[in-house]
Amino acid sequence: MRTITSANVACGGHAGDIASMERCVALAKKCKVRLGAHPGAVDRAGFGRKELRIMPAELELLLLQQAGALERVAHGHGVKLHHIKLHGALYHATEQDNRLAKAYVAIVRRWWPNTVVYALAGGTVAKLAKSMVWGEAFLDRNYLDNGTLVPRSERNALLKNVQEVCERVEQLARGNVISVDGKVIRVNARTICVHGDTPRAVEFAKVWK
Questions:
Q1: Which of 28, 68, 84, 99 is the most exposed place for a label (fewest CB within 10 A)?
Q2: Spatial separation of the C-alpha atoms in residues 204 and 61, rounded to whole Å
């Protein structure tokens, strides 16, 4: 929490429980970090990263259960929910399915009208959410030529060392990223993601800071 400005907190789907949410909310408050809900598929074994199919009504219930739980915990600490960022398979499902993306944006507008959405910069959700979105780029993940992330099943999905991360910082400072095949991709990002389970994540976050 001392190295970030926004925290995406797992809230009971792919990971997390009441105790971990309590700890994260308290730390976010102490460190003056923006608190965000990080809802994921109910898939502990696969950490919410297995491909899934989900209907809009199912997504709404999932968001109410998970983001609602974190919001309730946060309220007890006097902390407001700043943003919502989907995790793993849910994040990619809304980018790939325009109908689901529209439903996601509508759900957030209905239940959390004053909350920001963190979504892939230039992606489907970002284009739909417009003023309520903060475009997101990734400090620790490689990109394909189409602006999406290299699948985690590929060996080069992650950036692995500080030099690579420093190069990514320089790219983002210029408003772009370089794909694994060398294509320059324009990225208008307001928030930069480092995954907590990436090896050397804290060290990488300190490079950005």
A1: 99
A2: 35
